[in-house]
Amino acid sequence: MQRSLYPHNYRRFSSQYSQLKIENSYFLAFRAAAELLEKHRNIGNKLLDFGCGTGRSTRFLKTLGFEAIGVDISQDMLRQAQQVDQGDYCWLDSKEIPFLEQSFDVIFQSFVLLEYSSLFQMINTFEEFNRVLCDDGLTG
Ligand SMILES: C[S@@+](CC[C@H](N)C(=O)[O-])C[C@H]1O[C@@H](n2cnc3c(N)ncnc32)[C@H](O)[C@@H]1O
């Protein structure tokens, strides 16, 4: 059952993943994300980095000025994140994002949804985004 939620072996590769930098094709994706976020900067500062992994994306978002909290289903990835920056990281142990309704102005994800193996999982995630995002919030 865990397998369908967790298709990649981040237990094994979390320390290698934490070495990844924002460069090459990653640079292009993050640059585009920064431009998009900048356009909507007036929306607000509270940001959820969904599937933050080892915190690479969370740290990047903080450099843009956001108050970013990272959540992830992999405790191994989160452990690596904490080792780098002791930031605000939170384990997602169920399908529910552990925050109240309308907690965030922005929900960000990078390279997460492409790992999903079912439409059901995708729908559940977007329902949760809808719940924890402010009415006029931004997700992408
Ligand atoms: C490719 S990594 C990307 C990490 C980070 N966003 C980055 O850009 O460096 C994908 C991350 O998504 C997480 N993930 C996969 N499915 C998830 C889910 N259903 N809920 C939360 N995180 C998930 C994985 O554990 C992994 O850490």
UniProtKB/TrEMBL annotation:
CDD domains in the cross-refs: AdoMet_MTases
SUPFAM superfamilies per record: S-adenosyl-L-methionine-dependent methyltransferases
Pfam family of the protein (one): Methyltransf_25
A GO MF label: methyltransferase activity
Residue stretches making up the Methyltransferase domain: 48-137
Name of the molecule in the record: Methyltransferase domain-containing protein
